[in-house]
Amino acid sequence: xxxxxxxxxxxxxxxxxxxxxxxxxxxxxxxxxxxxxxxxxxxxxxxxxxxxxxxxxxxxxxxxxxxxxxxxxxxxxxxxxxxxxxxxxxxxxxxxxxxxxxxxxxxxxxxxxxxxxxxxxxxxxxxxxxxxxxxxxxxxxxxxxxxxxxxxxxxxxxxxxxxxxxxxxxxxxxxxxxxxxxxxxxxxxxxxxxxxxxxxxxxxxxxxxxxxxxxxxxxxxxxxxxxxxxxxxxxxxxxxxxxxxxxxxxxxx
Length: 253
Ligand code: NDP
Description:
Helices cover about 45% and strands about 15% of the residues. It is α/β, with parallel strands linked by helices. The chain has a single domain (about 10-245), classed as Rossmann fold, CATH 3.40.50. The chain has a seven-stranded parallel beta sheet, with helices on both faces. Strand 5 (about 135-140), helix 5 (about 155-175) and strand 6 form a beta-alpha-beta unit. Helix 1 (about 20-30) packs across helix 8 (about 220-230). Bound molecules: NADPH dihydro-nicotinamide-adenine-dinucleotide phosphate. The site of NADPH dihydro-nicotinamide-adenine-dinucleotide phosphate has 28 residues, from helix 1 and helix 6.
């Protein structure tokens, strides 16, 4: 493969939740750019079928990110059996659509555990190795719900806006060691999570359609291509940004 600043040749990427939806789109785009990818998730059947689709440059590990004490062993296993992780994509996440007045503490906490605290644990473990190697790249997956106030997603929106706070602070610690960290804020992207959330709510779906400047919803490949760019040398001077990939939804009135 010809090397361009956009190439991920000789790079290894760990993509959480890489067996479905946006994570699978990122895995596909990174492999096309020359990377080896490792995908994780809880459901082996999804990981296995993603691997069959992605080919021999894809490896998978079944891992529940809520099992935070197992994270150092997972990373050691990946780095000793496959390769040092150059790129970490914290994509796994869960959604909760419920009025805040009806959201229990345990439900709120579950969202924060998955979407924020596991991201911190995994990032800390990977970043300690990246900092020692003086090279690395970390991507968070945010959301429009981390930028706007949207009804019925208070826990989810809080988890996603907190990721931006976490990113800003980590940038200052990692930048001197050549480790970059950026966030992609997907707009409304056709994935299992999105379709589950909107298909049962036509009014919400119409509100979203009205909000997006470009025609149609986004595709998982759109997020994949943005992730390739941010992880590549082409973005070597970019750290600490939140990049909306949203068909203009954040500026459309
Ligand atoms: P999916 O539901 O397809 O993907 C979520 C992934 O996360 C699944 O592969 C799931 O795998 C994994 N996951 C969830 N919980 C855990 C856990 N405890 N341990 C390990 N893996 C876990 O939805 P999307 O592709 O849409 O979502 C991907 C990311 O994009 C999420 O962070 C989401 O918040 C974000 N996003 C999506 C948008 C959209 O429009 N689709 C918009 C904005 C943000 P498994 O269940 O097998 O563990």
